[in-house]
Design goal:
The chain is an alpha/beta fold and 300 residues long. The protein is 45% helix and 17% strand. α1 links the parallel β1 and β2. The chain is elongated, with a radius of gyration of 21 Å.
């Protein structure tokens, strides 16, 4: 079986590497549709695929192929579920991808069961046509050693999009007891390195929506407790390894932070559960399930 995967930078690099490590008789090839496919369409795409049995498309793929089976990943439905939090350009791109690729796919991967159910309900996808396969967490998070710092710290994953809900974290932090804020530092990082994640007392991550809560999965792999949202995929990914809160509630976020910062034993218990749960988010597991998915689609 020959699988071409539309290259999408860091978003696909770990997955492709893991697929190649797991592959036996399968050929896994990185692919770029390129400008010519945009100009000449499916006929050019079929030629460029050079006999691939499947194309796993991305938002960069201009059209569906005519010969190869088509698969894709559903990882973000915020444009349908929270349209006010998406820009017009994001909404347009998401809907065009759904019409151009998702509607024509022979099989789809959902990055969480939460988003799988949303795709069935919102996009009208057939349940048997969409399979939940969790993405992987880079092994560096499983092996990370804490980065030494002068003060213990709480890590927050910052972002400028409204759905990241960082404003609520800032207000909740100021609502903590002064002694807690004097003891712990709030460190904000857009894409935390493994050592920074592993060294944190806990992660606070309370977005309004995520298809797959990667920062939470990284925290579990790094062995730290989590305060996260009780909505979308977050309870599914962080189950038993963190405290779930209403992301709209400053008091719930502040209360959960206080509870964990004041209880080392509870943090340790959640971190222990998190380590066990993080085994679901290894690239090797993702690759194994992905290859089985590709075979099922190819044989239809």
């Amino acid at each position: 079986m020959r699988v071409a995967i539309e290259e999408n930078g860091a978003a696909t690099a770990g997955w492709i590497a893991a697929l190649r490590r797991q592959a036996r008789d399968e050929e896994i090839r990185e692919f770029q549709s390129g400008t010519m496919t945009r100009v000449f369409g499916a006929a050019w795409l079929d030629s460029a695929l050079r006999g691939a049995d499947l194309l796993h498309a991305s938002a960069r793929t201009p059209c569906a192929p005519k010969k190869a089976k088509l698969t894709a990943t559903v990882d973000d439905l915020s444009s349908w579920l929270m349209p006010k939090l998406s820009s017009p350009a994001e909404t347009k791109a998401a809907r065009e991808f759904a019409e151009r690729i998702l509607a024509h796919a022979h099989g789809l991967i959902a990055v969480s069961e939460s988003i799988r159910q949303d795709a069935i309900r919102v996009l009208g996808m057939e349940p048997e046509n969409i399979t939940t396969i969790y993405p992987g967490v880079d092994k560096e998070f499983f092996e990370a050693r804490p980065e030494p710092r002068e003060r213990p710290y709480v890590l927050a994953v910052g972002g400028d999009q409204p759905r990241h809900n960082f404003h609520t974290i800032q207000i909740a932090w100021q609502a903590l007891k002064p002694e807690l804020r004097n003891t712990f530092e709030l460190v904000v990082e857009g894409a935390p390195k493994p050592a920074l994640m592993a060294g944190a007392t806990l992660l606070v991550h309370v977005p309004l929506y995520e298809g797959f809560a990667l920062p939470v999965a990284q925290a579990l792999a790094s062995g730290i407790a989590v305060v996260t949202s009780d909505s979308s995929s977050l309870p599914e990914i962080g189950r038993d390894a963190g405290l779930m809160v209403d992301p709209h509630s400053v008091s719930e976020v502040a209360g959960a932070l206080t509870r964990l910062l004041e209880s080392e034993s509870e943090r340790a218990k959640l971190a222990r559960y998190g380590r066990a749960r993080a085994e679901k988010y290894r690239w090797e597991r993702c690759a194994e399930y992905s290859l089985a998915f590709f075979h099922r689609v190819a044989e239809r």
